[in-house]
Inverse folding.
């Protein structure tokens, strides 16, 4: 077969970019950037001369751009107290699935989220596994929703285009006496309705996953298990919901709630005194669902945060299993696992320890040593040198099961609380389940004839052929400006993230993967800040990592 070649005289984008790269300059800039941040000089260089909230054109490598407003359904300007049929409190994966499901009906629906962006709670920091349906007994609601949720992912993936891979899950037993527990998982999964489960010999497991420990004695294979990037799943759900008319208010923390007996509706009040009214409210506030319940005078319960810490290994690690590898679980957790992520990196973890508070996401050297040891027991080749970062997530612990029920104390409030693992897997089914609860509570559901379940495909430079990439550059030179070299993210993709409403560094990171690679943003953060300033009119001091007080540049000489 003839090798692929470009027409004469035409350079591929990769060739053009390589021609432009000057590595010495980039390395020098890193040092200079550090000095500038220390001295407050960067602010002067990045400063927006027109002041905050100003729309303006900025020349940048030949690309002139203008601020574009994101969806009109994102933070719509509200006069008085806008009224909705349903308001969902919390935009993690539960709230986002419920919102998207309700967007199929002729309803006025809003989601309110206290953070600067969606998926900034538990939904951003987890293992990203679509579980196989064998870890919990059938008596739990979470087991039933896990199985249903798992089945729903193929269709959601087709409609919304978020990365998803049904890579399969392995549970590896390292001692003969663990095989009893493996058999228990097998029969439990069968009873739950999990598809394709297989009890495996040592040889079968090693043929499926040759990088497993030679000490493995056998285990379980669940081919229906999978992996996703959780925040991109939430972003896609939210984009779909907004396209279909749902309103989203960010930086909107519910601090008070009043029931109007005459109008039969709730009035929700935020931290700035703004308000919304709703015939029905869904409390999907994750770790804070207990506090939200209290605001409504509804059921008293306590949610305790349980921390899970992780190691993230670079995509260049030579040790990357094809499937998710679990140990045999303990009574407290599913154990520490080795997870090939859908974007090619590897996660090791999580721990399961009490957290100091609902905001305590610190990682500790002591726990990370424990994680590495546990990971190495399953996959001995794991190497500390491949670690590029650590992070932690918090499980909202409330008993053993999900608590998804209408309040029996106050009217028109549905609790979606205690959504621990497998909450991500179950979330599409949670959307369905809550829709049915709302219907049973009296919400009329009339289908919208023009509901659009699909999002348009969104190109990503790292997945394009040189020809496809070249075509994009011809139409928009921003596709030719590489911002994040580790993850191959272009300026056009950063701009698209901003136009979708992601205006914090973390929001852009989760949307595009820029800052997620080996250098963890050392090279691209300043470029992203410049683009953010140009596209939004924000000053450098208004740019944050994840909202509130997470400013990264302050002051000027
Ligand atoms: C370490 C770890 C690993 C996990 N691994 C997996 C896995 O591999 N697979 C799986 O299926 N599940 C997993 N899970 C579980 C999964 O992550 C959760 O079940 C899921 O993310 C919960 O989503 P949620 O929307 O209910 O909560 P959250 O994502 O926490 O969303 C709640 C939202 O409510 C907002 N909020 C709170 N209070 C207010 C207020 N007063 N006003 C407005 N907004 C408010 C918060 O800011 C937050 O954004 C894991 C969890 C952890 C911690």
């Amino acid at each position: 077969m003839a090798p692929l070649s470009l027409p004469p005289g035409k350079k591929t984008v990769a060739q053009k970019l390589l021609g432009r790269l000057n590595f010495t300059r980039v390395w020098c800039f890193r040092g200079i950037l550090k000095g500038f941040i220390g001295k407050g000089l960067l602010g002067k260089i990045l400063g927006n001369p027109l002041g905050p909230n100003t729309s303006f054109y900025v020349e940048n490598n030949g690309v002139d751009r203008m601020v574009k407003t994101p969806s009109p359904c994102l933070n719509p300007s509200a006069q008085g107290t806008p009224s909705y049929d349903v308001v969902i409190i919390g935009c993690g994966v539960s709230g986002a699935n419920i919102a998207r499901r309700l967007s199929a009906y002729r309803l006025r629906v809003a989601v309110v989220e206290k953070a600067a962006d969606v998926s900034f709670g538990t939904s951003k920091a987890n293992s990203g596994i679509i579980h196989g349906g064998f870890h919990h007994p059938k008596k739990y609601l979470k087991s039933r929703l896990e199985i249903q949720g798992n089945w729903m992912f193929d269709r959601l993936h087709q409609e919304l285009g978020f990365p998803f891979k049904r890579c399969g899950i392995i549970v590896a037993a390292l001692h003969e006496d663990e095989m009893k527990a493996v058999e228990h998982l097998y029969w439990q999964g069968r009873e739950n309705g999990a598809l394709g489960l297989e009890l495996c010999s040592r040889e079968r497991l090693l043929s499926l996953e040759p990088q497993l420990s030679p000490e493995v004695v056998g285990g379980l294979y669940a081919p229906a298990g999978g992996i996703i990037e959780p925040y991109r799943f939430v972003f896609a759900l939210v984009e779909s919901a907004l396209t279909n008319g749902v309103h989203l208010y960010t930086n909107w923390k519910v601090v008070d709630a009043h029931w109007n007996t005459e109008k039969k509706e709730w009035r929700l009040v935020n931290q700035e005194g703004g308000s919304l009214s709703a015939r029905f409210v869904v409390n999907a506030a994750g770790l804070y669902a207990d506090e939200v319940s209290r605001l409504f005078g509804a059921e008293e319960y306590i949610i305790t945060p349980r921390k899970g810490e992780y190691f993230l290994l670079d995509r260049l690690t030579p040790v990357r299993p094809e499937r998710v590898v679990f140990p045999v679980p303990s009574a407290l957790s599913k154990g520490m696992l080795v997870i090939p992520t859908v974007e090619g990196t590897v996660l090791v973890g999580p721990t399961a320890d009490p957290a100091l508070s609902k905001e305590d996401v610190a990682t500790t050297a002591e726990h990370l040593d424990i994680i590495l040891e546990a990971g190495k027991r399953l996959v001995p080749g794991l190497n500390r040198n491949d670690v590029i970062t650590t992070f932690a997530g918090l499980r909202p612990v409330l008993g053993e099961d999900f608590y998804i029920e209408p309040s029996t104390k106050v009217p028109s409030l549905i609790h979606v609380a205690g959504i621990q693992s497998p909450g991500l897997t179950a979330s599409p089914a949670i959307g369905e389940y809550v829709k049915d609860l709302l219907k049973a509570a009296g919400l009329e559901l009339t289908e919208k004839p023009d509901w659009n379940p699909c999002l348009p495909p969104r190109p990503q430079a790292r997945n394009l052929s040189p020809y496809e990439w070249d075509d994009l550059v011809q139409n928009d030179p921003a596709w030719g400006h590489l911002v994040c070299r580790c993850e191959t993210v272009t300026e056009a993709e950063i701009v698209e993230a901003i136009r979708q409403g992601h205006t914090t560094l973390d929001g852009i990171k989760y949307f595009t993967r820029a800052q997620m690679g080996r250098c963890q943003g050392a090279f691209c953060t300043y470029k992203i800040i410049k683009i953010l300033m140009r596209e939004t009119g924000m000053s450098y001091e208004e740019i944050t990592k994840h909202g509130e007080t997470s400013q990264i540049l302050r002051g000027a000489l």
